[in-house]
Amino acid sequence: MRRIKLKGPLAILVALALIGIALAQPTPAGTSISNQASARYVDSAGQPRTTTSNQVVTVVQQVYSLTITPNGSSEALPGQTRSALPGATVYFAYTVSNTGNGTDTIALTTPQGTADNFNLTGVTVYRDDNCNGALDAGETAVSSLTLSHQGTPSSSACVVVAATIPAGTPAGQYANLNLVGTSSGGPSDSDNWARANVTAAAALTANKSASPSGPVTPGTTITYTIFGQNTGGSAASGVSVPGLSGSGILIRDIIPAGLEVNSLPTGSAGAGTVQIVYSADGTNWAPLTASNLPLVGNGSVAVGMFISGSGAFFPQGASYTFSFQARVPLSAPAGTAYTNAATVRFNDGTQQQVVTTNGTTNPVAASPNVAVGPYGYPTGGATGSYTAGSYTVGRSGDTQSITSAYSGSVVIFRHTLRNTGNAADSFTLSHSGAPSGWVCQFLADDLTTPLSGPVGPVSAGGDYSFALRCAIPAGYTATTAQTITVTATSQAGPTQSDSTTNLVQAVVSGYAVDLARLGSGGDGDPSNDNPPSASANPGTQVNFPIEVVNTGNNPDSFNLSATLPSGWSALFYPDANCDGVMDTPTPSPITNTGVINPGGANRRCYIAVVQIPGGTAPGANPISLRVDSATDTDPGTPGIQPASSDTVSTTVNVNLVVGLALDPDRSGTVTSPGTITYTHNLTNTGNANATVSIPAVTSAYGWTYELSTDGSTWSASLSGISVPAGGSVPLYVRVQVPGGQPIGRSETATLTANATYPSGTASDTATVTTTIVGGELNLTKSAVSYAGATTTVRHPSGAQAYPGDQIVYTVVASNIGTGSLTNVRVSDPLPAHTTFVSASATASGFGSGAQVLYSTNGTTWSTTPPTSLPTGGILYVGVDTDGNGTIDGGDVMPAGASITLSLRVQVQ
Amino acid sequence: MRLYLLALALALLGSALAQREVRLDLKAFRVVSIDQGGRVVERLEPALEVRPGQLIEYQLSAQNTTDKPLRQVALVIPVPKEAVFQGAFPLEGARLEFSYDGGRTYGQPPLKRKVRMVEGGREVEKEVEVKPEEYTHARWTLPELGAQQTVFLRLRAVVR
Predict the structure, then answer these.
(1) Which domains does chain A have, with CATH numbers?
(2) What is the value of ipTM here, to two decimals?
(3) Are A401 and A484 in contact, with CB atoms under 8 Å apart?
(4) Of A39, A120, A370, A677, which has the fewest beta carbons less than 10 angstroms from its beta carbon?
(5) Average pLDDT, stretch A179-199?
(6) pLDDT at A151 over 80
(7) E strand or H helix that includes residue B23
(8) Phi/psi at A526 (nearest 5 deg)?
(9) Contact call for B93 and A4, based on CB within 8 A
(10) In what order do the strands lie in the sheet with B22-36?
């Protein structure tokens, strides 16, 4: 295993504020981070491929973190100050937030200060359910808060710390108090000092509530109410405000940036004259009328209430209320926090005082929503088309469609979804309606990377494009529209989802093939596909150059076959150069084409070699050649064209072959007078029935030649002998020699057989050579053929034998004279087309001591028969009577003696 | 006997994997920096568990299991959505590119994104640089991966 060495350190090193990331929006504890790598490559066959790795999963652990506001870093720098009479209760308002990534329980304690004048009594922490900074009926005391992780609505809570200034505490003294929060996971927040002043002067409290008090969704109207009371020891006086006449108490609220005030605020006060005012810059004020509306918060614009009066006009116990409504803009992104606090300016009798209310915070809640639609048109209203994979996808409204797809192919629908919510969100993709057998998968917009799990996060208003890829099974066809619905569901709000429709209007077979004669494939013209007919002799081959073109849509392989007459065979040989001529060396025959890509350029050529069995009757033989898709098991859906198989037809015309064999040539000896019968075979080597005639043979010496096919009915000539194609009949020739013929006369007669076929003729000749002998030694030869090496007789006279059959020839030489004969040698040649099997000989009528000798050359003699005989060889047999080991003039064959020679051969 | 069964199981596993021409094995590690006598060294621990702000290193080994070279091998490690891309190690001979659009397009840094904005009352299209924190995928493209050759890729991301 070779490894490639790494080069250098991280090339792309990004200096990220790691803590910043952790605090911004920490991934919730328990989240599984899964990741999967993928690869795309071109394999050795040039095919693009993809693969994916294992999936690794990492689980996010909990981190603990909290904040409490407002901060007051030390006793000397309290974050909030309250003034009240001795014996009165002051209320400090805080917000406690869990900034960790998991639910946490935060314990709250209230240590008293040491750098102050006295300790507060009755210190109690209340949960301020409506976050108005005041203790309301029903709000309960707490010692801890359980808050969910950051980014969720219940991740923070308001509390009010109530503390009482002991009665009798002198004015001018103060006490400090801290609110300390401690996370169950360890961290704490302890810089939240507050101070209570003891005063006998006027002291206005200022509280603020927001309704709703918690998270708001875009479009919500928040009602802010600022209220308070003079809880001091004297009546309060007003202050002068730029732009407003007279003096008064000013309640000012800078509109949170982004919020919109559309209606006039309202207000009331226990004393003085109430006037609703506004300021564009927060400093200079003017009366607010409807014509000034709307007012949109920008950090400076403020609304207010001016309670005017002269002197110390706002008595002890008098209260005020100021209320206005502000609308959250529809575009408000989730997580935006509308934080607000109002101030109240008055004169406590000696100096101007500014009291700040508790702050209210209204985070914008996530309002998840999603739209999914055709590619580029997440909200529908789509038009136009695009190409994905092999198809054009049309868009219309919220629907995409492919007019027609091929079975065995892949359709790809691209989609775009839009996060129509106001917060980053992830979305679960699903599809439904795909026909059974279809395999559908979501892919990233690169159309390669498979998508597993939800996609995103997608920023608010952001788009995300993806694709649905469906593989249509090979055998699936349909004439009606197939509908696949794609649905995107918000993860933040699982009830929020949107769907879009994909249609495949029709599915036609993606498998088609054209088989044609060489040069005519894939032209769409079936009329020129059939190969031209061919003529050939039996026992030969006919070559049909053909070609196969994959006219379907998908790569496919095809089986090759042929329909032929019984006994015929066909083989298909690749013709690599498509020249219609068998390649050299001859390739191996095939039965399947292997994968052929669609298109005429990828045609494959073959030579179909049709073998005609020997002896096939003449005439026209229709044959057909066929290719059949190895993939598409659907043999042919009615109405679905083109088909995934193709057949071409042609005709093999088997020629009429004529041929006649009259064998073998015979010879024999005969006494005068005498009769000898020869046996021949008349064989029809043609492929049609023949009618054979044999004319009479004329002897120059007056001998009589008679012919017979059955050995019993004899005539001078024969005609009308019916010999079937490939068959044979025996032909007997009987020669009758009259008396008085000289010894040694010999006559060779030629027999001519003429065969007549339905068309054409054939003929052959054979000779019979007859020699007159002296009337002493008579030779007869007979033959019996056997089926193979068995003892089953094929033909009793050896007229019929098949290759592999054995024939036993028996030659009997008898001294039929009255005197002895000397130097008698009986010979028998090994017939043509036969192989020597064995030989034996017996002698009878010889004196004792006579020895049968064998020879294969007539010179060298042996007492044992030869074990082989060459082609054309001759076997000689004689009887040694003088004991000299050879056959010569000293060897005597007495009258009446006979020698029998038996030769067994096998037909080749 | 147990050993034999194990061997058999491994053999079966091997044959199952061998059917894939490219074998991808992805591992996740937590990168822990430790101080060793004033020298800060990194240690990789299996990242079964992480906390927000911690660094994960993904290591991908890709092996050509065939006896023939493969061409145009593009290997992709995505940045999980719960993490922020921090860096990727280059590989000699490979082109390293990044995607900010979920793997749809890849390019070499700096990546540019087209943004429509209103400037001087006119809507104009501007190219703005995509920050590495926005990368969603890293891709290494090798012209060829030799027979039986293995390459080793690394990507780092910070848990959000």
Answers:
(1) 28-59 (no CATH), 65-199 (2.60.40.10), 201-361 (2.60.40.740), 370-508 (2.60.40.10), 513-654 (2.60.40.10), 656-774 (2.60.40.10), 776-908 (2.60.40)
(2) 0.84
(3) no
(4) A677
(5) 92
(6) no
(7) strand B22-36
(8) -75, -15
(9) yes
(10) B39-46, B22-36, B55-64, B150-159, B83-88
- How many CB pairs below 8 A link A and B? 206
pTM, full prediction: 0.52
Phi, psi (degrees; rounded to nearest 5) at A637: -75, 130
Q: What does CATH list as the number for B20-159? A: 2.60.40
Contact A180, A190 (CB under 8 A): yes
d(CA A355, CA A114): 25
Please answer whether residues A400 and A431 qualify as being in contact, where contact means their C-beta atoms are separated by less than 8 angstroms: no
| Cβ–Cβ below 8 Å for B150 and A16 | no
Using 70 as the pLDDT threshold, list the residues of chain B that sit under it.
Answer: 1-19, 115-124
Q: Reduced to 3 states, what is the DSSP secondary structure of residue B145?
A: strand
Which chain A residues have a beta carbon less than 8 Å from that of B105?
446
A606 touches A573 (CB < 8 A): yes
* Mean pLDDT, chain A, integer: 87
Rounded Cα distance, A358 and A196, in Å: 15
User: CB–CB of A500/A450 below 8 Å?
Assistant: no
Given a contact cutoff of 8 angstroms between Cβ atoms, the answer to whether A876 and A827 are in contact is yes
Distance CA A183, CA A900 (A): 129
Distances (CA, A) of A50 to A37, A341, A402: 11, 59, 25
**Contact call for A31 and B82, based on CB within 8 A:** yes
Q: Measure the CA–CA gap between A773 and A776, rounded to whole angstroms.
A: 7
Residue A110 tokens read as 């209230």
Confidence at residue A373, expressed as pLDDT on a 0 to 100 scale: 94
Q: Domain boundaries in chain B?
A: 20-159
A193 and A74 Cβ atoms separated by less than 8 Å = yes
Residue A542, amino acid: V
Question: What's the CA angle centered on A636, arms A634 and A642, to 5 degrees?
Answer: 115
Q: Which residues make Cβ contacts (< 8 Å) with residue A148, sequence separation at least 6?
A: A98, A103, A154, A155
Is B73–A1 a contact, with Cβ atoms under 8 angstroms apart? no
